[in-house]
Amino acid sequence: MAVAHDFGGGDSELEEQSNEGYQEPAFEAFMCPLTRQVMHDPVTIETGQTFEREAILKWFRECRDSGRKPTCPLTQAELRSTDISPSIALRNVIDEWRARNEDKELDKAFASLAQAVPASVSVSAQDDADTLRALLYVSHMCHRSAAKKTLVRRQGVIPTITDLLKSSSRRVRLKALEVLRLIVEDNDENKEELGKGDTIRTIIKFLSSENFQERELAVSLLYELSKLDPICERIGAIYGAILLLVGMVSSKSENGVAVEKAENTLKNLEKYETNVKQMAENGRLQPLLTKLIEGTPEVQVAMAEYLGELALANDVKVVVAEQVGALLVSIMKTGSLPAREATLKALREISSNESSAKILLQAGILPPLVKDLFSLGAGHLPMRLKEVSAAILSNLVASGASFRSIPLDESEETLLSEEMVHSLLHLISNTGPAIECKLLNVLVGLTGSPSTVADVVSAIRSSGATISLIQFVEAAHREIRVESLKLLRNVSPYMGAELADALGQGGSTGHLGSLLGVVTVTEDHRSGVTEEQAAAVALLGDLPERDWNLTRQLQELGAFRALATKLVELRRGTIRGNRHVAPFTEGAVKVLYRVTCALQEEEAEVYVELAREVGLAPLFVELLQQMSSGQDAVLLYSAMALENLSLQSARLTDVPEPPPPRSLMCGCFGGPRQGKQPQPQPPGAMGTCRVHGGFCSLRETFCLAEGGCKAVEWLVACLEHADARVVEAALAALSTLVGDGVANATEGVLVVGEAEGLRPVVEVLVENRTEALQRRAVWAVERILRVEDIALEVAADQTVASALVEAYRNGDVRTRQTAERALRHLDRIPNFSSAFHQAKGRA
After folding, report:
1. pTM metric for this prediction
2. Strand order in the sheet with 42-44
């Protein structure tokens, strides 16, 4: 039902002015004596008086209802009969009068509209009033007779009113919208006329108006126009039209009438597939899904094609999978090639979300998908569609679903069966780059799960595919190289020795040399670390660190120097940071850790010189500062490396010769004077290291106790880390300062104390987080308690004694022995240690 609007409160006044300005006065005979209005259906009673039919019949009913005899309203004479006779002649005269008036009024209205001032010219209030009166008359005329709507079209008034939509007066624009809606209502010819030219685009612009009345009237007019099929196509073809309508439907600020009209307009527009596609692109997906479910095979193909072209939000992918997932799988299995192509592309998009992928797996997508992927001969998918199938399989594997429980055929083979993995490996080696990349990604997904990696590793071994997979690190396409590196890294914990041997074949010209070339090259510092570089160095970092042959090859290829340089550049900001820096740093630290593991081997001096040259110890100390989330591995391997380096300090320290004793010779007897023996040099004398007794530095002798290097402070900070492995590694590095290998273990304890590290060491013991950490902490505390002043103070702390007793009762043999010694220390210490006292006071 149309809603009448009185914009500005002036319609009633305009109507009076309109009647005064246009109408020819009516004769008295035209007027009904009862209603005082011009009659439409005049009738005569027996007295010869003429009345409006409805009016006189009402008079008779009132007489009857009141118990009176019927009378003439004018003469009050009683009537013998209430029969009435149509006054045909009078009615014809009145109709002619009306027609003359309507023609005059219509001519004047049309003339007034034709003379309306263009929007670019300022208008007076009188000009607006004339235009509004003319629009009001056209509105009344169309209300009175549907035939008048045809007359309006034939007189060429529709384009004139359309031009008023661009008026500078809002009242005129609003009235024009309202009148146009009335003109096209239930009149297809008028709809077609209004739909010509650029009018629909003008109407659609009103949908984004700031004025709610303009939006409401515009969407009401569009709804009327959308009832004609050709107009639906034109509306959808205008850029932004469907988006504005969809936005209006979902808006919480629009009134109910506008929302309802927008909704109904969209429903009318659904008749055309192109409109349905646009609706889907703008978030209104249900019409597309409905046509996909209910449409003919041809419509289903078209809708599936549209679906495959859309970029769907993750929550929408779930809805689509729930509603049409099973249907799409069915079409994929039994449809024609064009239907399967459209369906596969749609499934590729839908499966790219974890939840929707699992829904598709429940719908049975895996068996036909794998069958299509591996099928050969007549009826098989062309290579371009195998690529799509491989992408879908990659998405499904990435969902984390359990593929061990999904049979592929009657033989109960699964995706993890050895034969199936063999087929994947064979297809990878005998297909194009696009499919290779996706299938490698499938294996990356399968090997990324602890529950399935062993199956894939076993199949790789049994098929002898190790060399083939390694060869992909030198592929021409970067995406293939990246995926192959990810795969090799995933399997390296299970076949690290085999990978190391295969990579090392060929020396500098082999795969290892190519891999290092990728890792170390820097084409543009502004581009930062690439994904391929991060994947390559991560693989190298995961290979067995005690494979000395691989370490030697890396050394000969200059890998350690290059990686150390790159880490320094990253720390200084020379290379721009990005999301690949963290994994690259982790892998590089693991690779450099190999150098420290080789310091006790036959060629140790080579690696000592290397460590000195690149400043390995200072670099690891600097890396300890990376306490941010996700860098636990950097902390762990840096601390482990510092432990290995620090263990070499004692042998690398240059201990000065003690000064010769001074002889006091007697001139008489020619012999030395009897007296006191020479005293030993105190710790730190002559600039020597307090702990190692010689000339030390962090860079040259890997001494953690060097003043100002902050190594001990950063290791102490790691003792409070959440990861017990990091705590254990840091404690192991600190323990190298108090072990038997140093010249003065007491000074080592004091160095730790000055870094406020004694209390954290004791707290590690008290916390008793893991068995390995307890063993390490008991050893360190026993060393600390060898300093009598510290032992005396610790004796007052019952929690320490309780922790030692717990270790003595439940630890292994070595831990019990160490705990026993520590408990003995607590029984005999009489003095306090200022170092421990200060540490405790600051804690």
Report:
1. 0.74
2. 50-52, 42-44, 85-86
